[in-house]
Amino acid sequence: MSGQSFWKAGQPLLLASGSATRRQMLEAAGIPLEVVRAPVDEGAIAAALLETRKTPAEIAIALAHAKAEAAARRHPGELLLAADQTLDHQGRLLMKPADRPHARAQLMSLRGTEHLLHSAAVLRRGDAVLWAGIASASLRMRNFSEVFLDAYLERMGAVVTTTVGGYQLEALGIHLFDAIEGDHSTILGLPLIPVLHALRDLDCLAV
C-alpha cells in the first residue's frame, strides 16, 4: 500500500487546534492536515461549566465541541477535527497555569498523588457532528523534592504555561512521574486510535 492511499477524503483534514504535538501525531499517521483557528474562550467556558457541576471529563468534551463549532462557522462544509484536554485531580479541574508561580503551585499539589488526563475529540462538518469521543489516562507523580521542582521549572521556562498541569510528558516532564497507565497519544492530548477508527467509519481512511 502506498503512503498516499491511506487518506481517501481528498481534501486535507482541518485541525482546529494549535497544538504542535497533536499535529505531529496526525501527520505521523499519514493524515494530511491544515491547521485552522478555533477562537473560543476556554477559561470562560470551563468556569461556566464548573458552576453547573460538570466534571473535568465533561468539560473536556464540551471544550472540544466548542472549538469544533467555532471552526465550522469559518469553514462550512469541510471535515474538521477539534480536540481538548483537561486534568482531573481527585475531581478538581486544573487548567493551563497562568505563570511560573502558578505552575509551581499546581505541581506541588500534584506531587505524590494520582491524577487523570481526559483527552476529547470531535469530528464535524458544518452543522453535523460526525463523531465525538474521549479517552482517559492515569498518572502518578513521584514525591520529588522542591529543589528538583525549581530546577525543572528553570529548565522548562515559559513552556510550563502551555500545557495543563505545567508539564510535558514527552520532554522533561517524564522525570516527575512514578507510574503511568493509559495510551500515550491520550496523554499527549488526542485519543488517536478512536479518532482513526472514526475516520475509517467515515470512509476517510483505508480499511
Describe this structure in words.
By secondary structure, the protein is an alpha/beta fold. The protein has a single domain (3-201), classed as Maf protein. Helix content is 36%, strand content 25%. It contains 7 helices and 7 strands. Strands 1, 2, 3, 4, 5, 6 and 7 form a 7-stranded mixed β-sheet that branches. β3 (79-89) and β4 (92-94) form a beta hairpin. α2 (42-51) packs across α3 and α4 crosses α5 (146-156).
Unreliable runs, pLDDT <50, ≥5 residues? none
Rounded mean pLDDT is: 93
User: Given the helix and strand composition, which structural class is it?
Assistant: alpha/beta
Outline:
globular
Work out the helix count.
7
Distance between the termini: 11 Å
CATH architecture: Alpha-Beta Complex
Sequence of secondary-structure elements: EHEHHEEHEEHEHH
Biggest sheet record: 7 strands, mixed
* Strand segment count: 7
Question: What is the CATH topology assignment?
Answer: Maf protein
Percent helix range: 25-40%
CATH class reads Alpha Beta
Oligomer: single chain
- Count up the domains: 1
Q: Briefly, what is this?
A:
The protein has helices at 20-28, 42-51, 56-74, 100-110, 146-156, 184-187, 192-201, and strands at residues 13-16, 33-35, 79-89, 92-94, 114-125, 128-141, 177-181.
Topology:
Blueprint: E1 13-16, H1 20-28, E2 33-35, H2 42-51, H3 56-74, E3 79-89, E4 92-94, H4 100-110, E5 114-125, E6 128-141, H5 146-156, E7 177-181, H6 184-187, H7 192-201
Parallel strand pairs: 1-2, 1-3
Antiparallel strand pairs: 3-4, 3-5, 5-6, 6-7
Helix pairs in contact: 2-3, 4-5
